[in-house]
């Protein structure tokens, strides 16, 4: 069964070079005494900090640096671009009126990366 995700969860982007820590938007809902996440906690920097360096050739700064290096892939600082919500989220539990975020949800970055939950931040509350 999926595990409810909260502030402090560890995430990884397949195009990033370092893990990052999720920060749920404050709500009046806690899971294991930490702010609970929902699928709309997808804002770059506010909820989704950078993942170190980005390796995606779709990222304009990486593409420019790679062109300047005569075709040698040149990673550049990560700037998450996450316009869509996490998917799929919980089918039965709402947090602040939106589906709860669980450890099986993923988040797409416009630069081609997919962000996954590596550690949900707590392990006692499971959600369907």
Automatic annotation (TrEMBL):
Signal peptide start-end? 1-23
Q: What is the lineage of its organism?
A: Bacteria, Pseudomonadati, Pseudomonadota, Betaproteobacteria, Burkholderiales
Q: Which UniProt keywords apply?
A: Signal
Q: Which InterPro entries match?
A: DUF4280 (IPR025460)
Name the Pfam families for this protein.
Answer: DUF4280
Protein's name according to its UniProt entry: DUF4280 domain-containing protein
Give the highest taxon in the source lineage: Bacteria
């Amino acid at each position: 069964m999926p595990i409810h995700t909260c502030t402090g969860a560890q995430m990884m982007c397949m195009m990033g070079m370092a893990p990052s820590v999720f920060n749920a938007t404050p709500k009046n809902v806690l899971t294991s005494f930490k702010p609970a996440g929902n699928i709309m906690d997808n804002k770059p920097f506010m909820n989704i900090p950078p993942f170190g360096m980005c390796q995606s050739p779709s990222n304009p700064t990486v593409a420019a640096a790679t062109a300047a290096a005569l075709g040698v892939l040149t990673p550049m600082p990560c700037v998450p671009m996450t316009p869509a919500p996490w998917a799929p989220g919980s089918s039965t539990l709402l947090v602040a009126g939106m589906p709860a975020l669980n450890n099986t949800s993923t988040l797409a970055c416009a630069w081609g990366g997919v962000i996954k939950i590596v550690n949900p931040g707590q392990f006692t509350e499971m959600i369907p």
